[in-house]
Structure formats: C-alpha cells, structure tokens
Amino acid sequence: MNKYLLYTIALVILAFVQRFLVSKLLILHASPDILAIFIAFVSMSTGQRTGTNFGFGAGLIAGILSGDLGLSALLGTVQGFVAGFFHVPQESHATSVKKKRMFYAASATALIAGNLLQSLLSDPLSLPLYVRIPETVILGTLMSMMLTVLLYHFALKKLLKD
Amino acid sequence: MLTRKTTDVSSFFRFIAKHTAYLYFLLYCTLSIMLMQLQRKETLDAIRERGLVINAAIGKQFTDATAIFTQERDNQHLFLQNARLFARLLRQQAALRDAGELKAIVANAPQWTGRFKVARVVDRRFSATENMLIIDAGSRQGVARDMAVLTPDGLVGRVIDVSQNYAKVMPVVNRNFMVSVVSDSTRTNGLLAWRNGNERLAKIEHVPVSSKLLVGEGVATSGYSTFASRGIPVGQIIRISKDKLFYNVDVRLAVDFSSLSWVLVSLAKPSMEKIELMQSPDSPEKGE
After folding, report:
1. How far apart are CA B21 and CA B40, in angstroms?
2. Which of A16, A66, A73 sits opposite B32 (nearest CB)?
3. Do A52 and B62 touch (CB under 8 A)?
4. Count of the separate structural domains present in chain A
5. Which CATH number goes with the domain that contains A112?
6. Structural domain for A73, as ranges
C-alpha cells in the first residue's frame, strides 16, 4: 500500500484517538498529544515539505473534530515544519540510534512549539500565562514525550528501520 | 545580457524549489490565520457546527460504550438515591397526614367539656386478651389517672396509668372497660361493655325489657360515669333483642380504633369524692 495513503489512514484514526481517548488523560490542564508525535514522525521520515503539508492536513482534521479549525491547522503546520529540520533521508543510511535521537528531537521540538503556540493563542480556561505555560508546555511536553518513548519502542521503531 | 537574465530567473526558481517547505509553511500559516480570523464568520460557523455534531455524536457513542462498564455502579447509585427520596417522601407524607389529622381534631374538638390535651397514639395492642393504647402525654402535660380520652367522634377510653411523658389508656374495646351510658332519645340508662372480638361492636347491659329503647338511637356517656363528662358520644344502637329480664343491645362504636392516631385527653379532673363514695361498702359500719 502507498506509504502516504497509509499515513493518511493512520492520521484519521489517530485524530479520533487523540480527541476521544488521549485528551481525556488530563493532569492539571495538560494532556499528551499523540497527533503531534505522529506529525513529527512523518515529517522526520519524509522531509520538511511533506511534513508541513501533512501537519496542515492533520491540523484541519483535528480542527474539524475539536471545532477550532484555524488554530489546529496552524499548530499542525508549525509542528510539521519544525520537525522537518530533523529529517533523516532514507538514503542516508543513518544508524537506528541516530534515527531514534532525531525522532525524539523532532517530537520534542514539535511538541514544545505546538504547546507554546497553543498556550499563547488559546486560553479556554482563562488561566494566567504563568500558569498556562508551565502546565501546557512543560507538563504537556513531558507527558507526550513519555508517550513518544512508548510509541517508538512498540510501533515506530520497526517503521523507522524499514 | 539575456543569458544573465536567464541565469537570474533560473537561480530564483532553484531557490524556490529548494525552499518550497518555507513557502508551504508561509502559505499554510497564512491560511490558518485566515481561518482563525474567519472562524467567527457564518460560513465557518456552519462547518464548526457540523464538526461539533460529529464530535458530539461520536462522543455520545464513546460515552455509551464506556457506560456499559459503569452501569452497575450507576444503577447502585440510582437505587440508593431512589431509596433516599422514597424515605423522604414517606416522612413528608406522614407529616402531612399527621398535620391534617391534628388540625381536624383540634378544629372539631367537642365544646361540651373543658380543656383538652392533644396526644398522639404511640403504641397500641389490640388482641383477644389485652387491648391497650399508649399516648405521648403524661403527668408533665397534666394528664392524670381516670381522665377520659376521646376524639371528636366519641369516647376512646380511660387513662389507667401515667408516667412523666406517657399515659396508658384502657380503650372501650377492652373486656375490663365499662362506662355508664344513656340513649339520647329515650334517655335509657345502661352499662356499655365490650365483650366480643369485633372492635366496632359493644353491648349495653342492664337494660330492662320494660325500657323503650330504639334501634338507631345514639348513645352517650351519662352523668353516672366516674371519669367521663356527661354527653360524650359513644356509638349508635344497631340491634336490640330480648332476653329474660334484659335487652341484648348491640352498639356500633363511634370511634374507629383501627385508624386511631390522635386523641384528646379531657383534662377535667374526675370527681374523687364521687369515686370514693361509690367504692365504699354498701352496708353501714356497725358501731360498738
């Protein structure tokens, strides 16, 4: 099956999982962002341009589900774009350790950028900025990074080797 | 000159081709910001609304699916809540009923005697051997032995024992209870007593066959009674049959003891002088 079609199907499924399952795992006001991890993965493995396109599309789908179309699209675009800086080309013959490091770096950058942007542009709970940024950016990123490690070991590791 | 221009254009396109990601990024960011700005517009509201409908529909399905796991706990919670509400309803209904009865009993209190103390029946024993009532008014409330207990319908009984806050009442429907009565039309006197197992039926004894007693007459306490004031309704004659010397008179009691919950205690003190006189020996003491 075409790799991009597979990514699109996975994206739709993950958007629903994020909206109806992962977003419920709230600690304070932060929750993990599985969609950002996936955007980072796609961007890292396919390149910045594809990652940006993919991020925008992913943001639109997430926006339709959450009702916040513009912000979600912007977040997806930014996440895809910044994760693209850690692109490891297929023909580079990079070691799995390097791929892993780049994936973690791409995920962390995408998550921090996305969470920071979200905490600056959206404030549904009317929390002050000094509460929003630690909660959303630091806690949200830490939780998502834990999920990143789990996802890498259980699913994405094999995909990156291929 | 032309070659230089061609080189410039091609280098521009090369630059563009090399940095398409940046162009896409700018384009998408612009689109996203436009969407954010347009989100307040009606057209996007419709999209957002549709998204929310999908969101809500899926969310509902998701909630329904997870509800299966919490159903037992929810049911238990609802059952407990139901039980609490039911208990509260029962309490309120009882309070309403009590208030209604209390109001009625005070409003209909007979005027032919003095003061009354309203009391609630807190315990009752109706059996073939012992019929007794306990009311929640005692010596602290001014209740004393041998006071008459009644309702607006008629005579209930007589106080036979008193504690500080409670009193024991021997009702009309007790084998040991007797009261002097008189019929309201023919003014026939007799002694009312309860003998059989029917708690609505009593008998009048010692009515000579020469009397003109009639079926349907009302019966009330007479002035001969040692505890009850004169004229408290007791019942109505429903059957008269002749015996050798006396009539067998069946009286349907005025008070329904099966639904008795509030009573009045007549605070009129019984005439001790009269009681002592009646209890004194019939034969005169012999002098030395």
Report:
1. 29
2. A73
3. no
4. 1
5. 1.10.1760.20
6. 3-161
